[in-house]
Design a protein that fits this description.
Strand content: 15-25%
CATH architecture of the largest domain: 3-Layer(aba) Sandwich
Shape: globular
Radius of gyration: 20 Å
Low-confidence stretches: none
Strand order of the largest sheet: 3-2-1-4-11-10-5-6-9-7-8
Number of strands: 11
Helix content: 40-55%
Order of helices and strands: HEHEHEHEHEEHEHEHHEHEEH
CATH topology of the largest domain: Rossmann fold
CATH class of the largest domain: Alpha Beta
Largest sheet: 11 strands, mixed
Length: about 325
């Protein structure tokens, strides 16, 4: 299956006129994570500060011929210390984004959610995949497939709003959110359908803003106009959704991986709801996917910067 990454290329192109985003990179101590940082820096997406054991980072760079000569390194003794030091750079205002290196996601997020030293805000922290699916006209945002295991209705309000804000930051002219379940009718025996209906009514009451919402919707009638028409669903979202909100982490994980392994999709990842966007990359990611994750974070950081400037002004 051939795939030209046109949706990711578009996101990367949107960053060209923007300044590189100062980014604290936690523990980039293997080839893939360090190369991802250098590639993104060369594209002008991020201005990285490497945080981790200096000797290990320099050894990896030398072994694999990665040029880090002009990059700042903040020495930290081990992975947990790297996460803490990277978060501290954000709190000090030196970084406007955070990027995962070769440490475990739990280690990084543990530092992020620290009560007194972390990066929490009033908003629930959540994850979004930005999927580039071959043959599908638009990028698809899927949330939450990595952070919130079984979110409550209250938590889903923030998860949905995070995804809407991201979609707008990425320049989507109209954000159409499908609240997914196994069916498109409200069924008291299926809690996700009740929560979907509640979220849509909350959007009607402006408790969720910036998008069109509909749900419950099954996956087919969320993304296929033909399926929606067969089911006689009259909705501006059905068949045209560009944000898919899943009931829980298991459903989201299966959906994203099904698209990746059965449809040849790529999955850029970002965590939202903290003080700054957090870039999550995997060793299995392609170079383009890693760059796309950085581009998404750069666009989100730029929007946050613009919002802060407007508030000050």
């Amino acid at each position: 299956m051939t795939h030209k990454h046109e949706k990711y290329d578009h996101l990367i192109a949107l960053c060209k006129p923007l300044p590189a985003t100062p980014t604290a990179v936690a523990h980039p101590c293997d080839q893939s994570s360090l190369q991802a940082v250098v590639d993104a820096a060369q594209k002008g997406l991020i201005a990285p500060i490497l945080v981790g054991p200096r000797s290990r980072i320099e050894a990896v760079a030398k072994q694999h011929g990665i040029d880090i000569l002009n990059l700042e390194i903040v020495d930290a003794s081990h992975s947990e210390a790297s996460a803490a030091a990277a978060v501290a750079l954000v709190r000090e205002g030196r970084a406007e984004a955070l990027m995962k290196g070769s440490l475990h996601t739990d280690e990084l997020m543990g530092a992020v959610v620290g009560r007194d030293t972390g990066l929490r805000t009033a908003r629930r922290i959540s994850h979004c995949f930005i999927m580039d699916v071959p043959g599908h006209p638009d990028a698809l945002i899927i949330t939450d497939a990595a952070v919130n295991i079984a979110p409550t209705l209250k938590e889903k309000v923030d998860i949905v709003q995070n995804a809407i804000d991201l979609a707008r930051d990425l320049g989507m002219p109209e954000v159409r959110v499908a609240i997914l379940s196994a069916m498109e009718t409200v069924n008291p025996d299926v809690p996700s359908t009740l929560e979907a209906a509640a979220l849509c009514k909350m959007a009607d009451r402006k408790q969720i803003t910036g998008a069109l919402l509909d749900g419950p919707l099954a996956l087919d009638n969320a993304i296929s106009l033909q399926a929606a028409q067969i089911k006689k669903i009259d909705s501006p979202v059905a068949g045209r959704a560009n944000v898919l909100v899943v009931p829980d982490l298991e459903a989201g994980n299966m959906l994203a991986k099904s698209l990746s392994f059965l449809a040849g999709a790529d999955a850029a990842g970002i965590v939202l709801g903290a003080r700054v966007p957090i870039i999550l990359t995997s060793r299995a990611d392609s170079v383009t996917t890693r760059l796309a994750s950085c581009a998404v974070a750069a666009l989100a950081a730029n929007a946050q910067r613009a919002s802060s400037s407007k508030a000050v002004g």
